[in-house]
């Protein structure tokens, strides 16, 4: 099968906050393709509730924000990445205001700032309890006014294209029509999000299957710190949902209790109680559930008054009511759920990867900002800051109008796997991977369970290979293949770390090592990496 390439100066794969802000900051003389796996509105940015962290109060300081980030990251944050992100926080929020993002205001006209776990000050700017949605909508609207940007929706990225060791484009399939497409570009940016759907219970949309990390690995990029998958402490416990219940609920006074008697337990685990870092809270909930044989614990914010709960969390009140719980009047059942990939494709401070012409920004990347545990509300900030930094770096290097001339590219044939048997095989193995990761690579780990997970994943890999072979480009198969690869890399990274640090807790290695070292995995295809000196493998 052959495909006629589309030619652009820049190709951005992913249309969340990172990809869109990158596009907005690329020179308007450059032709830019923006690729969305689903609709433009689909993705993790839309689901972000709490807010965006920034130094906006005279009572706060950049150094305090830096220290909070470093403490949450448990010794693995790279200070240069933290300083860069925090230094750009206030101007990033002002830029969002200029786009029309309607941040919640106090009666004085100042932005209402909330506090979340791990923060020493109120510094979270928010739009009620739907900040990501508000930011995403304004970024989309701004991008749609740019004549140099062209959108392609429902295109799934298959793999990167390389020539002489450099990335020159990517291969896509239209998930609605099945047609293959090639985009040639001088610069390619991965803004594809994380991989939390590798776990059975997740707060993420189904599209979070780690596609960008998998593509970068196959192309030859190193990945770092994939063992640190953040479990959000408070997802709604319900058969049909793992609705994220924002960190801001605890920031505004919400408490966690266990059992029918409503025993408040977080003070036994950390002096900051409910405002401890996420890894501490998630592990405490997991411990309480196992200790008492519970299916969930309770989150209660009703004591601040029904009117204030409704004013502060209107979206969550409505969503909880749809599942039969009233956040305004009583506790709701919660459990931890996979939420955020702290590791990813290794990059420098401009988002550049090991491969020439390839960038990674947002959750797909490992910049050194989050270390072993992400501080709440630093994720949207990272997306926006590094999206802009990558654009600025690209603008300096880009020679517009010099994209490769169109030519025919030979591609593997699209698999015909729409039979009921084939689809059942895909669904079965998708479920098997996620159950394996949840059961053996979850909040609390052990070497024996990790080895068992590794064994299960090899079995699944063999079953998939026997059923479909290696060249299949059916969308469901591509996602399954990526999810399997990401899961294997997570397990490999977890087995490498013989300590407990941040989000990675090992029952047989419960102590913190004296030396804090990144876990860097190098694929066989990885080139020499003289340019990336911020991570060492």
Major pleated sheet: 7 strands, mixed
| Portion of residues within helices | 25-40%
The percent range for strand residues is: 15-25%
The CATH class label of the largest domain is Alpha Beta
- Global outline: globular
Number of strands: 23
Distance between the termini: 39 Å
Class by SSE composition: alpha/beta
CATH architect. name of the largest domain:
3-Layer(bba) Sandwich
Low-confidence stretches: none
How many discrete structural domains? 3
Structure description:
The chain contains 15 helices and 23 strands. The chain has about 525 residues and is α/β, with parallel strands linked by helices. The chain folds into three domains: about 1-230 and about 340-400, FAD/NAD(P)-binding domain; about 235-340, Alpha-Beta Complex (Flavocytochrome C3, Chain A, domain 1), CATH 3.90.700.10; about 415-510, Methane Monooxygenase Hydroxylase, Chain G, domain 1 (Up-down Bundle), CATH 1.20.58. Strands 2, 3, 7, 8, 9, 10 and 18 form a seven-stranded mixed sheet that branches. The protein has a five-stranded antiparallel sheet with strand order 12-16-15-13-14, covered by helices on one side. Helix 1 packs parallel to helix 6 (about 130-145), helix 13 (about 420-440) packs antiparallel against helix 14 (about 445-470) and helix 14 (about 445-470) packs antiparallel against helix 15. The model has no long low-confidence stretch (mean pLDDT about 90).
